[in-house]
Amino acid sequence: MIKLKSKVRVVLFGPPGSGKGTFSSQIKKVLPDIPHISTGDIFRENLKNETPLGLKAKEYMDKGELVPDEVTIDMVGDRLSKEDVKEHGFILDGFPRTLTQTEALTEITEIDLFLLLDVSRDIITKRILGRYSCKNCGEIYNIYTLPPKTEGICDKCGAEIKFEQRSDDNEETLKNRLDTYEKNAKPIIKYYKKKKLMRKINAENTLELTEKDIKKILEV
Ligand code: ADP
Ligand code: ZN
Questions:
Q1: The model's pTM
Q2: Which domain holds residue 73?
Q3: Is the shortest distance between the CB of 14 and ligand 1 below 6 Å?
Q4: What is the domain-level CATH number for residue 114?
Q5: Is there a domain that residue 156 lies in?
Q6: Which ligand has its closest atom nearest to the C-alpha of 153?
Q7: What atom in ligand 1 is closest to the CA of residue 173?
Q8: Which residues 6+ apart lie within 8 Å of 158 measured at CB?
Q9: What is the domain count for the chain?
């Protein structure tokens, strides 16, 4: 029997809509205990609960701009200090997004792998404008590329779902998010390439990876 490495610390990096969320769910199937830390999800959760952090983040998120580094870095630093992270590592999804955040992350923790999900801009646009999720369990679907097996019913939890977009998944905000990504991505990718931690994955097609693929990618 192959023994899994007990701890993996991976950064998932790629433009909005590159499949970071979907890819994270697939990693969780192989490593069920690994915490999936999505800064976008944490911000949305805080927004929903109207916490001070949520209110602060709202104005930026609504425009598709980045929440300021200090706020984001503190939030992630907090999350990474928790017990589950010490024990099982993490999938970091949506962080770092700037060079300042990248350098801050290096101060906070080592990582094992920086995975770049590579997709062209027009595929992204289609994916994002068609994307929706199950309100009950969070499973992600797409009207064009990834509909549930039975229309209107969640594959994962069986709840009824309807097409309801994330509020920042509209054409104008998306353009901003993609521009921001393109502006920031280069130096971050270069940073991890230099540390020999960068690995690029073609994410043009819907990511349907087997357990073996995932293990190979994560080297577990
Ligand atoms: P996407 O990758 O689809 O743009 P996310 O769910 O990752 O969406 O993030 C949604 C929004 O949350 C971003 O547009 C931004 O306003 C904010 N956000 C998420 N992660 C970060 C980050 N690392 N730094 C600053 N803002 C962030
Ligand atoms: Zn569901």
A1: 0.84
A2: 8-130+179-207
A3: no
A4: 3.40.50.300
A5: no
A6: 2
A7: 14
A8: none
A9: 1
